[in-house]
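Our consortium's second objective concerns turning raw sequence data into structural hypotheses that experimental partners can test. To show how far this objective has progressed, the report includes one record in full. It was chosen at random from the queue rather than selected for favorable results. The single chain below, 363 residues long, was entered without modification.
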Amino acid sequence: MILMVVSIASAAPFAYIANGNNVSVVDTATNNITATIAVGFSPYGVAVTPDGATVYVTNSDDNTISIIDTATNAVTSTVNVGSYPRGVVISPDGTRIYVANAGDNTISVINTTMDTVTATVNVGICPLGVAVTPDGKKVYITNYGIGYADHNEDVAGNDTISVIDTATNNVTATVNGFDFPYGVAVTPDGKKVYVTSGGGYNASSTVSVIETSNNTVTATVDGVYFPYGVAVTPDGKKVYVVNNQADSVSVIDTATNTITANVDVSESEGLGDPTGIAITPDGKKVYVTKSSLKNAAVIDTATNTVIGTVTVENYPSTFGKFIGGNIQKAKLNGSKAKASLSKYKDKQKNHSKHHKAKKNHQL
């Protein structure tokens, strides 16, 4: 008899897609929606804890964070944060949450043990994207600016990247030279930060590369158009960038910082308005949320082609690392594995008793 034990680590992850006033839970193995969770008003930023047990969602029009237990797909707590929260990220050890509050130019730091805000950090104007280094020591925030009509390069904190030291919750560096910076992502080795810029009209569309060792821009990638969301593959070899006004996704080779492919995510129905992007933990699939078409495109990273579409009820604009471990399936698989192991052991015991009885009879 061959016993198949399914490990928790092998369980397929979920994509948590914010849309309307809900979060749709997508099984990335099947691309089926397995649950719909009501959260606050205008959810946008989504982050999943490293163990896949909890999801944090920013509710922009509520000034709150909804905390979801993935085992039950229920909101277990709501935390008040700053004004108009957008991006959110979780520290690698899962103990802290960093929320970008675009309305009051602050970052809320949440202790996950108590689910309370323990610090508020002043950053630049209109913070949107937020990313943390793998060692958990630095947080990078994109300060988008003061809006299209009032755009002014001379305003302090406008079009910058703020760098927070997580040990002190102080801004220790400000990186300049951007034009409406939006999305931000850190490579797995913690050496580079990729920032999308050009989300405003008449702005220059680029992806900038920051060296974390000295917080300086060392490369600029052209060829993108209104870039919003950005994500790095788990192996650190590729960066995927959403081109909002081009209905496409650009693929950047991190070794050369050049675009090696452009994936068309458009549909005949019209402009998809893609915004958010996330990559599965195994690096095989990329999910791109398209607000106007009420769906998410699924890209195969091996071929850089669209292999599927997930339809949601409302208008998805999910932003951040919205894919994480499937704790429900892991628990189910773990239970099945334990049950199978128990049955196997019982069968072995019965077989042993039968063998002994047969041997005694022969004697």
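The partners drew two points from this record. The chain has two domains: 13-324, 328-355. Residues 1-10, 147-151, 328-345, 354-363 have pLDDT under 50 and may be disordered. Both points have been shared with the crystallography group to help prioritize constructs.
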